[in-house]
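Quick one: co-fold with pyridoxal-5'-phosphate.
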Amino acid sequence: MNKHFETIAVRDQIERTGNKEHSVPLYLTSGFVFDDAEEMRASFAEEKQRDLYSRYSNPNTNEFINKVCKLEGAEAGFAFASGMAAVYSTFAALLNSGDHIVSARSVFGATHGLFTKYFPKWNIETSYFGVSEVDTVESLIQPNTKFIYCETPTNPGVDVIDMEYLSAIAKKHNILLIVDNCFATPYLQNPIKFGADLVIHSATKLIDGQGRVLGGITVGSNELIREIYLFSRLTGPSMSPFNAWILSKSLETLAVRADKQCDNALKLAEYLENHPKVKWVKYPFLKSHPQYEIAKKQMRLGGTIVSFEVENGVKGGKTFFDNIKLCSLSANLGDSRTIVTHPASTTHAKLAEADKLAVGITAGMVRCSLGLEHIDDIIEDIEQALAAV
Ligand SMILES: Cc1ncc(COP(=O)(O)O)c(C=O)c1O
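Sure, here it is.
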């Protein structure tokens, strides 16, 4: 019988030890021992499948990876120290000098930094498409294009990209579609179902859900993950067993947290839609969202992030942030505590002004990551901060 998301997230765990523990213990060990020289040789030669050294694998990381693979519908995965380690290692393992990437213009600031600052050093160029111009993607493909890359929903604009459309182009040109699924998590959206070849997560966000640890993961086919694994076991970006232990337990509560946080987000978005101090509000499950139909097709719920623009530009934005009392001013997202961020001066500050505008990051834009507090208290805080604008 195919188990439901919640059951897999709670019940999928590594084998119990002789101590018959109910909750999986923490395997805080860098290495593992062998019975004899032959076992050690066979293990290193990969004739025997087992844990050797925690840079390669560890019972806690194995459990976290196996769970995410089942929840995403993937064959295999590798877990990383952070979301950016997952993004970088996935690209570095699979790209060669002279390759080309076609990417959505709206990608996380650090990913954009890899494309613009570091990959050109290795003769890897990137062409960009706007979220409302997916019909231009095919024209950007060159003979040396290796990947189409996107985030959906995007950070911070919560734009939504049609993965089925992109995957049809990728398949036609025999290239890969890679999706950063950080904003949706495996609970809200499974990109593999829509044709993605690899799915990347920053587990630091809603997967952890309590703002405690960093983590990342890439999942996909056995063949592609094997390449990523071989690169990573040499270069060492692996997730620590401690973080994997935390994150695997976090997955147990992901569905209930996401249900509540998405409900809070929809309620806040609806409230802001009619607010006189708000120029615009974007949330994937608002009918006014430009890609509402695509969001409904791809996502179970609209996500936990709402973006909006306050009146009076930079001055209005500053006044809003300075008057916030309950919500946190922080750069993280997906936490149990509601967080408001000013992308233009923080997470996306390194983008040139023209690039910021091209991806819809305006001076007074606020990214709000809804937490688990009561929605009335969140709205009360935002209401009094908006009143000061
Ligand atoms: C969409 C997206 N991808 C990747 C990352 C990077 O994740 P991490 O901070 O875990 O390195 C972030 C972080 O905010 C993100 O929002």
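If it helps, The chain has 14 helices and twelve strands.
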